[in-house]
Amino acid sequence: MKFLCVLLLCLLCAPIALSQPKPIVQFKDNLGFLEWPESILWHKYLERENQLLLLSDKTLKLIDVAHAKVLVSRPVVLPNLNMRGGYDFSDWVISPDGHKMLIVGHPEAKAGAKQLAWVWDLEADKRVAVLDQAPSDIRSGVWSKNGRTLVTFDTHDFDSYITKLQISFWDGETFAYRNSISVDNLTWWYLSNDGQRFFAASGRAKNLLGVKYVSDASDGVINAWDTGTGQIEKTIAVSAGDFAPRTKKITVSPDERFLVFAQKNKANEAESRLIVWELNGSVAPKYEIKPQPKIDNSRVVFSPDGKYFALDVGKNLQIYETQTGTKRSELPNVELPYSWLNNQVLVNVDFKSKSFFEMGMKLEAFDAINGQMLYRHMLEYSESDEPDLINPNTSNTTVTDQTTIIPHPNGQMFLTYSNEYVKIFDARTGELLQTVIAPPIDYSKKKPKLKHGAAVLEAGWSNDGKTLYVFSANRQTVSLWGLLGS
């Protein structure tokens, strides 16, 4: 009898044990600033070195991601953290190699009324350049991916109300001034990874009830500048006869070989076409296609490797080979995807479903070959209504939490993170592989429930996909998780 009881107990427990998924990642360490009030004000993942740079107002830490080890921890001297109105510390930009920082919005960085920028050496703890040769204010900037070109702008708000933009180019390593350009009616811009080309699209300035704004519906043009000379290398006339461009939705492929944009036919949408230019070496037209029945959303979404792109044609989705423009497949009743998880799986994200019973954030995954729905998930999402400070009788709806989706470098899985959760899913099946971080459970009451409160600021994969890193919401630490079996 005793043996039968033990056997029955084993049989009852077996499904529970077998249902527990095998962990995908294993906790390595929690590193950073463990004592309040010191916290991570800036951080940057250094791709080439596979390191994380953490920076507070008085300490710099450099972390070996692969081995979860602090390589450097030393005091750092920064300019006092005063800021002009309208600026934030997030406007200070760390260079790709982690050695320098572009400082904008500092009240002491000025020449008369002109706002300047500084470059701060994080290794020598001193200012190494004053960017004072731009013809206008400097309010924001960005380094090229290889760090060899620095571009600064006279605004930090890129919206539809900018009718003139001043842009300056600098050597990203010596900070020597190269040249400046002026762009009217900006609708889109892009800096190449090598920093040698700067692309900008222009639309037409319009006026609505005295408010000036920029439209991309007509007279659009794309210019490609050589950042070394400041000269226009190529002009792409994107308006032609009955065709008007959608320059706000220009897309460059992940490998930077192709630039894609739609030309909408003003009289007959069925005649609209997609224009593809090649950027590999020269800037030259590659091909154009005229999808049927019509181009709906003018944006295209590239696969992670850039070999394919998805195009919205109304009720259906069409998949094309990027190199040739050959249609690979047509997926019925599939919308333009939020992203590709890999070359076989597309995901759509509805940030606020119209269904009363499914309010929130919904993810749907589809097979990129036949359009079959693979799975659907509801994701963490929340909003709140805050009183309007100007008109107390009204309120503004703001998103307080939403889920970010990051594919794994191998494309076989993806992670999601929100304020409270970090989870890993199988890209093909949608199976939850592991909940890495979740709210703790409050057992103080009769009915246990989750303790709610922000725990996660940001999460991501290392370039090799072997490590998951998670920044805490209190900005004090980053936890490192190693991929098992790697």
Q: How many distinct beta strands? A: 45
Name the average pLDDT: 88
Strand content: over 45%
Low-confidence stretches: 1-20
Structure annotation, total helices: 1
Shape: globular
Structural class determined from secondary elements: mainly beta
Biggest sheet statistics: 5 strands, antiparallel
Indicate the radius of gyration in whole angstroms. Answer: 26 Å
Multimeric state: single chain
- What is the terminal-to-terminal distance? 47 Å
Bin the helical content: under 10%
List the helices and strands and how they pair.
Blueprint: H1 2-19, E1 25-32, E2 42-46, E3 51-55, E4 59-64, E5 69-75, E6 93-94, E7 100-103, E8 110-111, E9 114-115, E10 117-121, E11 126-131, E12 140-143, E13 149-153, E14 164-171, E15 177-184, E16 186-191, E17 197-202, E18 204-208, E19 211-215, E20 221-226, E21 232-237, E22 243-245, E23 251-252, E24 258-265, E25 273-278, E26 284-289, E27 300-302, E28 308-312, E29 317-321, E30 327-331, E31 339-342, E32 345-350, E33 361-367, E34 373-379, E35 381-387, E36 395-402, E37 404-407, E38 413-417, E39 422-426, E40 432-437, E41 441-442, E42 449-450, E43 456-461, E44 467-472, E45 477-483
